[in-house]
Design a protein that fits this description.
mainly alpha, 5 helices, 53% helix
Length: 134
């Protein structure tokens, strides 16, 4: 019987997958490609503040992981298109749910950050206690 992977173990291979999912640029690329095939420059325009180098590196990593397909067309200049693989689509659906959650709860998160930064306890009474000067 195969042992189930344990991502809490330092050498567990699932950590690499979780690292990829936790990478902001990878998440944004997956969400962008969920809408369909895009060329490199279209992806770069879609994702603000991503450098050409970072986009290229992240696309290569996603391609290596089998999540993104790169297709080259022999045109002048060469045309390169990126799309999700079947495996990539399954992940993009999960990532899309995280994006929806973030959009739905951003107000609560920002309010919690303001309370925390002011040293106030959250409304549920859990979390850091206000700082006291003794």
């Amino acid at each position: 019987m195969l042992k189930r992977p344990d991502p809490f173990q330092a050498l567990c291979p699932t950590r690499r997958v979780l690292d990829r999912i936790g990478d902001t640029w990878a998440v944004l690329i997956l969400v962008a490609l969920d809408g369909g095939t895009l060329r490199f420059n279209a992806l770069r325009r879609r994702i603000e503040n991503i450098s050409q180098k970072m986009l290229s590196q992240t696309l290569k990593s996603l391609e290596r992981d089998g999540l993104v397909r790169r297709e080259v067309f022999a045109t002048v200049p060469v045309t390169v298109e990126y799309s999700l693989t079947g495996l990539g689509r399954t992940l993009s659906q999960t990532v899309h749910q995280l994006t929806l959650w973030a959009e739905a709860h951003i107000g609560e998160i920002e309010a919690a950050q303001r309370r925390y930064d002011q040293g106030l306890a959250p409304p549920d009474g859990h979390g850091p206690a206000p700082l006291s000067l003794r």
